[in-house]
Design a protein that fits this description.
single chain, alpha/beta, Rossmann fold, Alpha-Beta Plaits, 2 domains, six-stranded mixed sheet, four-stranded antiparallel sheet, 11 helices, 37% helix, elongated, binds adenosine-5'-diphosphate, binds magnesium ion
Amino acid sequence: MNDIIKVSNLTHDYGHGRGVFDVSFTVKKGETLGFLGPNGAGKSTTMRHLMGFSSPQSGNVSINGLDCRKSTGRIMEKVGYLPGEVALPDGLNGREFIKMMQGMHKTKNDERTAYLLKKFRLDTDVPVRKMSIGEKRKLAVVTAFMSDPDILLLDEPTSGLDPLMQEVFIDFIKEEKQRGKTILLSSHIFSEVEALCDRIAIIKDGRLVSTVDAQEVRHGLHNIMTVEFKDKDDLLQFCNSGLELSGRDDKHLRCSVKVYDEDINAFISAVKCLKIKGFSEHSVTLEEYFMHFYKKDRATGGVCYA
Ligand SMILES: Nc1ncnc2c1ncn2[C@@H]1O[C@H](COP(=O)(O)OP(=O)(O)O)[C@@H](O)[C@H]1O
Ligand SMILES: [Mg+2]
């Protein structure tokens, strides 16, 4: 069995269209799945079901073949969970909190804990109540990873970290990937998902709208070439050359086409004998690609991803 994390038809309806509805996906051993969606999309709700904190109204969630609700204790031992909102007991300092968590998880890996404290530059003598949001977040990171779990559930892990620490965190997750960890990472930050994930599941309004292979998306991105012509005949000839049009401006004699890697020769042939006044190229980023997809989805109210 290669599927470590399995969410099958998960539904939890909180009323007024809120919640998660018929969500299904899997994360294979050693894979990093990006769970991408705007605020309120249902990312944390799904993760909380995976940690066994909530019961599905229908559907199933399992980790390593164990039902998440029935085997919460065993799941908590196996999984490193970084919650979206960190709530820490005010009366303890960092060291005491770490000790308490080690007791709860019945694990003590001093070497690993020391490595993490150094990496994330955390002073454990500081009382939790005096920690900044970023420091609390770092403490949560250290406690989530200190038992060196094979499965990681990371709910918007870089929120609250400063840009330097975000970079440290992303490098750390790359290391964890190298070490074969299975990771579910929720985020609304495209660059983070792009840097870390093998596959991307997009959730919107509680429903999964698409799951894509990150590598395929990168290969499938196109450039927009905009050409300005000296006369209208050349503009018309170019517009009828068979390239995929993305815009046309007759007043300024401009035309834009989508050019994928394999279309580049066709593009050059199409413009070769025409009188050109100007030319510009624009590469579509993963972010634009997904924004386009979101908008498209909103307009049609359905899944329309090719
Ligand atoms: N316990 C709850 N009771 C009522 N509504 C909830 C509860 N938990 C989540 N929701 C609602 O479900 C939706 C999804 O929330 P959430 O999973 O936190 O989104 P995300 O993590 O993607 O920002 C939101 O509209 C939220 O208000
Ligand atoms: Mg959330």
